[in-house]
Design brief:
14% helix; binds calcium ion; single chain; Jelly Rolls; mainly beta; 144 residues
């Protein structure tokens, strides 16, 4: 039983290596967020030149004024050096009637890299005690 589980672990580790070595492809992705406070980091995605992050249906965990929205900042994940930050945008439309907030970052590098977004504030607060749920997160990498 123990031997079998170790083999499974090794197989999983090998496929992770394969993923890292695979050619980088840019793909759009959809997800949701629950209970994320300032400091939350999204999954990484491969992108270049331009990227777009959309939130549809935002709800705060507490009574923070929704007019202050949720702060969304795109970063490039760099190995062996500090990550590069791009604009911090405040999403507010997603708090009303399940509308969509959309942010575009057109200043990211032309060379393909690994990107993520960070939640920087919720209701204007940067403490993790205020958190947000997002029904739908959509990242569009399509522009070249
Ligand atoms: Ca792109």
């Amino acid at each position: 039983m123990k031997t079998r589980s170790r083999i499974a672990t090794i197989a999983a580790a090998s496929s992770a290596v394969m993923l890292i070595l695979a050619p980088q492809a840019q793909a759009n992705w959809t997800s949701s967020i629950s209970n994320a406070g300032a400091g939350f980091e999204s999954r990484r995605w491969t992108d270049s030149n331009w990227t777009q992050v959309q939130f549809t249906g935002c709800y705060n965990s507490d009574v923070t004024p929704i007019g202050d929205g949720v702060g969304v900042q795109v970063w490039q994940d760099l190995s062996f050096q500090p990550d590069d930050s791009y604009d911090n945008k405040i999403f507010t439309a997603c708090y009303s009637g399940g509308n969509t907030s959309s942010g575009e970052w057109s200043e990211i590098p032309q060379e393909s890299g690994q990107f993520y977004f960070q939640i920087t504030s919720v209701g204007g607060r940067t403490s993790y005690s205020s958190s947000v749920d997002v029904d739908k997160v959509y990242v569009d990498t399509a522009k070249p």
